Each structure stands twice: as C-alpha cells, then as structure tokens.
Automatic annotation (TrEMBL):
This is Enoyl-CoA hydratase/isomerase family protein. Pfam families: ECH_1. Signal peptide: none annotated. Belongs to the enoyl-CoA hydratase/isomerase family. It comes from the Bacteria. The lineage of its organism: Bacteria, Pseudomonadati, Pseudomonadota, Alphaproteobacteria, Rhodobacterales. PROSITE patterns: ENOYL_COA_HYDRATASE.
Length: 202
C-alpha cells in the first residue's frame, strides 16, 4: 500500500489505498517512516497518492486503537524535514487529519484544483502532532493556523494557495510532470551543493 520508486536519485513515494481514501494503517505509517529515515541518499523525494484523495489521515479503526496519537506521525514528519534533498508533496487530492504533517514537512507543496485541506483535531478530540502547528504557522501565520486547527475550517486549493499553504495549483494530468520538473535541478546537482543550499534556506 506504500509504493517506492527509485529512478536514479529521485525517490517517489506513493500512498496506494485509494479505496480507503489513502487512510493510513500502522503498517503503512511504519513503512513511510522507514523510507523517510532511509532517504538520506536520495537527491530528491516526491510524496503523492493514488486516486482522488491524497490521504484522509489515520484509518478509522487504527485511529480508535491509538494510531491517531502515535509518535510515528512525528517521526515521519521529522525525518522528512531533516532530509538534505528537495522534497515535494504532490497532492493529488484532499489532505486531512494527521497526514497534514508529512506535507507540511516537505519543502514544497503542489496541489490539484479539487483538493481541500482540513485538520479536524478539535472536533475529534485529539491534539495535533507537536510540530504540525508550528510548521503550519510558519507558512500561513497563527490566525490562519487557528482557522484550520481550532475553527475546523476546510479550505479549498485556491485558499490554500492564497494563504501560502501550497506553492502551486496544477491540473491533475500535469501533477507528477510538474513535481518532477521542480526537482530536476536537484537530482542532477552535486549533492554537496544541493545540501549546502538547503542548509542556507531557513
């Protein structure tokens, strides 16, 4: 349910459980953590999903069993954020719940026009993972972060772009082509130069 394609230095990770809105089980989340923690050798990493939803977050049954508050979410986002290569979340559809963390941890986020973004932790009675509000606020400011996390608002792709939560809106048939074009220079660059530039970018 988690696919990894390695093409030279480009790693493409795909959530492949479209019949369940790419909701994540424990095994899927563990596999994502494993890949992210091993991706130090990658020149670039693209994270995407199959179907019309990027991810609905935790699988409901797994969430009730404790996955919603698992440390695996923080390990995943921390591992992605720590990568020295360029990382792109190519959001093929709606992004919900704890899955926001992995997209927030990426350097760039692109989304299809139909995508919506929400993180209904208050309604569901969970705290967000610790780094997610800080990363979100760094992108869109504290008030808009509260709009999503505390007011429970579902925002459109256009609103997400206007806020600065996503960097480009891309037609679905051009999503992966765009993602690959964004990482093309990083894939072919001297790894030391790429890592050096990454270190200079806050």
């Amino acid at each position: 349910m988690i696919e990894l394609e390695q093409d030279g230095g480009l790693w493409t990770v795909t959530l492949n459980r479209p019949d369940k809105a790419n909701s994540l089980t424990v095994a899927m989340l563990e596999r994502l953590v494993e890949i992210a923690e091993a991706a130090g050798e990658a020149r670039a990493l693209i994270l995407t999903g199959r179907g019309k939803v990027f991810s609905a977050g935790a699988d409901l049954e797994a969430a009730r069993a404790g996955l919603a508050t698992s440390d695996l979410w923080e390990r995943l986002s921390g591992a992605i954020a720590a990568l020295p290569c360029l990382t792109v979340a190519a959001l093929n559809g709606t992004l919900a719940g704890g899955a926001n963390g992995m997209a927030l941890a990426c350097d760039l986020r692109i989304a299809v026009p139909e995508a919506k973004f929400f993180y209904p932790v208050m309604k569901l009675g969970f705290l967000p993972r610790p780094s997610d509000p800080a990363r979100m606020a760094a992108l869109i400011g504290p008030a808009r972060t509260r709009l999503i996390l505390m007011a429970g608002q579902k925002i459109t792709a256009q609103e997400a772009y206007d806020f600065g939560l996503v960097d480009r809106i891309v037609p679905s048939d051009q999503l992966m082509e765009t993602a690959r074009s964004l990482v093309a220079d990083s894939v072919t660059a001297d790894p030391d130069i790429a890592a050096g530039i990454a270190a200079l970018c806050p």
